Amino acid sequence: MFNFSGSEIVFLLLAGLVVLGPERLPGVIRQVGKLYGDIRRTTQDLEKELRGTFDEPLKDLRSTADSIRAGFGEVDPEPSPPMRAEQSAAPTPEQVDDVTTENTEKSDG
């Protein structure tokens, strides 16, 4: 959790000795150690609870994703049906004019 090197720990102990004095320093170190242990236990318990809560939904999600992935891996050997001829070609300008004329006649009449 905390990444202190040896020299940093010695510096903190000396600073604590100067600030707190030799009488109070051991008690404060004990309290800090106890607090650190409590926090660490609490976070480990919380992590276990969260893992237990989300374990089953995550398994379901993974299995669904795997089945979807497996479905994409299959190749259909049959080709798709061809498009109808009237849909495959782009409309000519005359066809566009005919449709436009029909629409204007419908709106006028």
Your description of this structure?
With 109 residues, the chain is mainly α. It is 77% helix and 0% strand. It is elongated, with a radius of gyration of 37 Å.
Give, in order, the helices and strands: HHHH
β-strand amount: under 5%
* Uncertain ranges: none
Q: Measured on Cα atoms, how large is the radius of gyration?
A: 37 Å
Structural class: mainly alpha
DSSP strand tally: 0
Q: How many distinct helices?
A: 4
Mean pLDDT: 82
Measured as a percent range, the helix fraction is over 70%
> What's the story with the biggest beta sheet?
none
Shape: elongated
Distance between the termini: 81 Å
Map the helices and strands.
Layout: H1 6-20, H2 25-73, H3 85-88, H4 93-108
Note the main attributes of this structure.
single chain; 109 residues; mainly alpha; 4 helices; 77% helix
Describe this structure in a few short sentences:
It contains 4 helices and no strands. It is 77% helix and 0% strand.
